[in-house]
Amino acid sequence: MSRLVRLLVLLVALTGGGTAFAADPPAAGAGAEKGKFVLPRMIVAAIQGDRVVRHYALLMRLELAKPADAKRIEENLVRLQNAFILDLNDVASVGDSFDQERAKRRLMSSAARILGDAHVVEDVVFERVLERRVQPN
Questions:
Q1: Exposed (0-12), middle (13-18) or buried (19+): which is 7, by Cβ within 10 Å?
Q2: Which of residues 11 and 137 earns the better pLDDT score?
Q3: What are the distances in angstroms from CA 89 to CA 27, 71, 75, 98, 117?
């Protein structure tokens, strides 16, 4: 797959990709005082062969060990988002559906690596996973 396609997918994912949800999700970081951290919505592409076959719009939140850990998440949010987008694109590109359990394991591993502690993020919760199939031209 060309670098241009990967760059475009990453750009769409980081900018939110338009209106993927009917209602606006909570602001990023919402709920941090309760040990929950809402991530900005992410759009990932399922790439098989040389074409995009599906898009997934994801709304996720992180369950934190301590509410005070939200500051660590905010400080590393850009790095977390970049790693999560790569992980989610890899998961989305395997098979015919989005494997939430596999994605959760990958995201937990990336969070532990970036934050330097496996006990900051206790869980990744997928609040919404919307799929849109791409019609071949």
A1: exposed
A2: 137
A3: 23, 26, 23, 10, 24
